[in-house]
Amino acid sequence: MRIALLTLESTASAAAAAHVLRETSQEVVFLGISDPFRGGVARTREIVARCGPRILPWLFVEFAAPRLLRPRGAGPLAAAAAARGLRPVVIHDINGAGQAALEAARPDLIVTCHFDQILSPETIALATRGGVNLHPSLLPLHRGPMPCFWAAVDGDGYFGVTVHRLAPRIDAGAVLAQRAVALPAGATVSGIARALHHAGAEMLLQVIDDIAAGRERGREVAALPYRPFPDRAALKAAAKAGVGLAGFGDYRVARELGGVAA
């Protein structure tokens, strides 16, 4: 089965995406890397306008550090791509120019892992077997771009990871596999996301093989409300409750990752 893997250079998911890329027994024909800064300063300003300055250390650790602290061609994702003989394609618009590049690769299945662009129905339809996504929450809980933050803030201990079908609605496709994950007390949001992506990598590999063998078993779940980036009040309340976004340990991990995109 021919796979197109779409991911993002981030501290949360780079190692997990590299593991999937390295270990899958299927043929990987396309590796697309989203540019988290494709909107330039305007996009960052939009996020900060909503979240306030408390979000800046998390943004740096997750997205800027892997690009700035390692040279191009270094890090686990770059190494896994090289081992596969793949040249990563930087994706600025998956439903625009990226769609044409994806179509040319002729994938049977699209696999997304922390890919921050929403695929249109037409883009998903380019793959004969559709697409699947790894999401670091127990869907339908915590749909959206910062599920680990909301899981930590809710304080109910519902941490886990889900592999689900790609659908036009965000994080709302049929659930293919899911598992709860126990996490140490005091873990940062960045650390939680990293642990959940790591836990989900093997599960994603199994789902890919199941689809290739025609063993897919999905279940539809009723979508719960979408959880967007937290606003200033939510971040302030989280800080008071002892929920940390990122720490020095996360910064150290970020130094070891990245290096794929220009």
TrEMBL record:
Q: Mind listing the UniProt keywords for this protein, alphabetically?
A: Transferase
- Entries under InterPro entries matching the protein: Formyl_transf_N, Formyl_transf_N_sf
Q: Name one GO molecular function term.
A: methionyl-tRNA formyltransferase activity
So where does this one cross the membrane?
none
Output the Gene3D superfamilies linked to this UniProt entry.
3.40.50.12230
What is one Pfam family matched by this protein? Formyl_trans_N
Q: Which GO terms describe its cellular component?
A: cytosol
Domain Formyl transferase N-terminal positions:
97-208
Q: Mind telling me what this protein is named?
A: Formyl transferase
**From what organism does this protein derive?**
Neoroseomonas eburnea
